[in-house]
Every structure is written in structure tokens, then in C-alpha cells.
Amino acid sequence: MEKNEGILGQTMGFLTKLLNGILAILLALMVIIVFSNVIGRYFLGSSLAWSEEVSRFLFIWLVFFGAILAYINDEHLALDILTKVLPKKGSQLIAVIADLLVIYALSLITIGGYKITVENMTWLSPAASIPYGYVYIVVPFTGSILIIQAVLKIFRHVKALFSSSVHYETPVDEVSLPTKTI
Question: Do the domain assignments include residue 1?
């Protein structure tokens, strides 16, 4: 994401920080619940009946929110075979086509996620009695955020496609040339 995108850039920066905070909280809760269950099982001879179920639900949310951050930061896997042999404008065009396909796939996932969320609001999980709709609501929420992100990426790619002064690194450039070390 470019630094000078105005209010949109500030909003996305806020969203990124918010998602990082939510991910940290979800991970901390998951660790606390699982650790408490292990301690209870081995030292007290009793375990929390709902801990496995709730930690699984937290993990589902963790994965979906992590997918949003990975997409915002262009950290998802990408094939760069075609874009490496094409000129920069060709790479931008391929990126636009890829983002259009991503929007199509995400719209299917979002619509399906909405349907499954509504259908499962009355179905309760056995141990924690949490409606499964609350677990599944992360799918349409994440899909909606990712669609917005894909539209923003299309705008940036189209802007780069028709302007010679704008330089935007495509996700495949970032995947093929890692800037972070683990």
C-alpha cells in the first residue's frame, strides 16, 4: 500500500493495526484456554469441556483475519512464471485480470458464507452452546473486506498501467524478491 493515499490509506492503516490487535488477542485467548486445559487435565485431573471447541473457533477466526492481513500486504502465494517474461505493463494487466478473478471467487465465498451463517444461527455447538452462525460469520465479513481490498488493488494496477510515473510492485514481485527474513 502506498503511503500517500489520503483518507483511504489512513483507513487501511487503521484496519491493519486493528486486525493485528485482534489477531494478538485471539492468539492469546487460544493459548490461555489450551494451556489452562492442559494444566487442569494433568495437575487437577479435570479438563474444561468447552476448551477444545472454543479454541477451534478462535483458530478459525485467527486464520480468516490473518488472510485479510496477508492479502493487504501481498503475502499470499503467487505464480510469477508469466509476469517475469512480460514487460511491466503486461505484468500490470495480468495483475488486473488476476484481481478480477479474485473478486469473482471472493464473491462466491462471501455469498455462500452469508447463507451458511444465516442457516446455522440456531444450531448450537455441543460443549460451549455457541451458535455456529457466530463462528461462520467470519466468512462473509472476511470476504467483504477482501473484495474491497481487491478493488483497491485493481485501481492501483490500472493507475500504474496507464501512467508511466506510477510504480507499484505487484504481489509476484514481492513473492519472488522477499524483503523480510524469518
Answer: no
Q: Per the domain annotation, does 124 fall within a domain?
A: yes
Give the integer Cα–Cα distance in Å for 37 and 42. Answer: 9
- Is the pLDDT confidence value at 28 over 80? yes
Query: Longest Cα pair distance anywhere in the chain, in angstroms?
Result: 68
* Domain residue limits at 135: 6-176
Q: Is residue 181 part of a domain?
A: no
Q: And the C-alpha cell for 72?
A: 493487504
**Given a cut of 80, is residue 78 above it in pLDDT?**
no
Model pTM score: 0.80
Residue 16 CB-density burial (10 A; 0-12 exposed, 13-18 middle, 19+ buried): middle
Residues paired with 131 in a beta bridge: 124
pLDDT exceeds cutoff 90 at 8:
no
How many separate domains does the chain show?
Answer: 1
Cβ contact 171:95 at 8 Å = yes
User: What is the 8-class DSSP label of residue 165?
Assistant: S
Q: Tell me if 142 is assigned to some domain.
A: yes
Looking at residue 134, its pLDDT comes to 96
Q: Where are the alpha helices (DSSP H) in the chain?
A: 6-39, 51-72, 81-85, 88-119, 132-136, 138-162, 171-176
Q: What are the angstrom distances between the C-alpha of 57 and each of 5, 48, 114, 118?
A: 35, 15, 17, 17
Instruction: Name the amino acid, one letter, at 3.
Output: K
